[in-house]
Specification:
- This protein has one domain.
- The longest helix has 29 residues.
- With about 170 residues, it is mostly helical.
- Helix 1 runs parallel beside helix 5, helix 3 packs across helix 6 and helix 7 runs antiparallel to helix 8.
- Helices cover about 80% and strands about 0% of the residues.
Length: about 170
């Protein structure tokens, strides 16, 4: 990271994305990728995908990847600040919406929100997977592993950790 302005850019971007992160952190990976890899060049696509994979393998919520991204860009302090910047705005909004929802659980707008957010969530999570696969893969075999993992995750009850292990083994062999 080159300056305090870069830290502000990252934190402001994460805070703004927090407000539209329907579906969790994965939903906004494409835009974070765009900022930190494509626009700013703070890391490579492979480094970004590695941080995401590391956060998935570690115990705890997947949002911890924000701390890893912040740490990679500007050190431990920015890592902590990045996690707070991403978690705080959406947490406040979630609390406010939950309060309103519990007060009017049977209302028409509450049913419409539940119905409308499901396809939006699926779409942004799929877009995130696409960005991660294209940012990390530079070989047709890796794309094949990503597609096979997607199909297996969709049609079986296989635990995702087995898919991650299988992907790591295939990646080491490729």
């Amino acid at each position: 990271m080159e300056s305090l302005a870069d830290a502000g850019t990252l934190l402001g971007h994460l805070a703004a994305l927090s407000l539209v992160s329907v579906g969790g952190a994965h939903a906004v990976f494409p835009d974070i990728f765009r900022l930190v890899v494509t626009e700013r060049g703070w890391m490579t696509g492979t480094e970004f995908a590695t941080l995401v994979a590391l956060s998935q393998a570690a115990p705890g919520p997947n949002v911890l990847v924000m701390a890893l991204i912040g740490q990679r860009v500007g050190g431990v302090g920015l890592g902590v600040a990045a996690l707070v910047a991403f978690c705080l705005p959406c947490s406040v909004i979630a609390w406010l919406v939950a309060r309103a929802h519990f007060r009017a659980a049977g209302s028409r707008w509450a049913r419409a929100m539940r119905t409308g957010f499901a396809p939006v969530t699926v779409g942004v999570v799929l877009a995130s997977g696409f960005v991660l696969a294209t940012g990390a893969a530079h070989d047709w075999r890796i794309y094949l592993v990503a597609m096979a993992s997607t199909v297996l995750a969709s049609v079986t009850r296989l635990h995702p950790l087995w898919l991650i292990v299988a992907g790591a083994v295939v990646g080491a062999l490729v």
